[in-house]
Amino acid sequence: MQIKKDPATIMQLAAAMAALGAYSGENTEAEHAKEAQRIGGGMEYYRLRMANALLGIVETEAMHSETAGGAEEQLLHAHNQALESAGATRTKEMLLGFLRWRTLRVAGPLRQIAQDTATGPIPLAAAHAAEGLQQLLGITAAGQSIDPDTMSPQVMKDNLRSAKDSLNNAIANVDIMLGLIDEAEEYLRSV
Questions:
Q1: pLDDT band at residue 36, thresholds of 50, 70 and 90?
Q2: 14, 60, 106, 191: which has the fewest Cβ within 10 Å?
Q3: Pair (64, 116) in one structural domain
């Protein structure tokens, strides 16, 4: 397996989707230009959408593959294969940056879910925890190549405090849920 260096074209992305049975268009420049115009934002935005559509398709394939079972060690090797294919294992800094990118992809939907107050405190706790994790990964990635001439201890302390605040907010929301469960149990004992 080779690590891809150049970004895929829209037609390559569509061809990959077609190979997985998830694209039935003509895969022509005219077709893609028309679709890009329909959704707005230009061709780069359309390419972004196509790349993310393919990612979702491939992630679903990976999920299906994992449900087939396998030893934990085999799953770890399979997960590492994804990191290697992405070129993320070349340096610790690249790996941490890639893991941070993945965490940002988790944090966004969790924040959206948490906007609905009916979901309760747990999705909000998860959103805060994901935010704290991505902050810690960013700090750690930056720490892999510290230049003493440009390093700012104050910036690092501020970033660590921000991560700590996010994680404390996660814990506070877990505590809220534990309190609600305690109240419900007490109520049920009293009736």
A1: very high
A2: 191
A3: no
Q: What is the pLDDT of residue 42?
A: 96
What is the mean predicted confidence (pLDDT) over 174-187? Answer: 95
76 assigned to some structural domain: no
The alpha-helical segments, DSSP class H, found in 27-91 are: 29-39, 42-67, 72-85
Q: How far is 141 from 93, CA to CA, in rounded Å?
A: 5
Domain that holds residue 32: 10-71
List all residues 6 or more positions away from 24 whose beta carbon is below 8 Å from its beta carbon.
18
Virtual CA dihedral for 15, 87, 48, 128, nearest 10 degrees? 130
Its pTM stands at 0.81
CA 188/CA 191 separation, integer angstroms: 5
62 and 97, same domain (yes or no)? no
Query: Mapping DSSP to helix (H, G, I), strand (E, B) and coil, where does residue 13 land?
Result: helix
Q: Is the pLDDT of residue 44 over 80?
A: yes
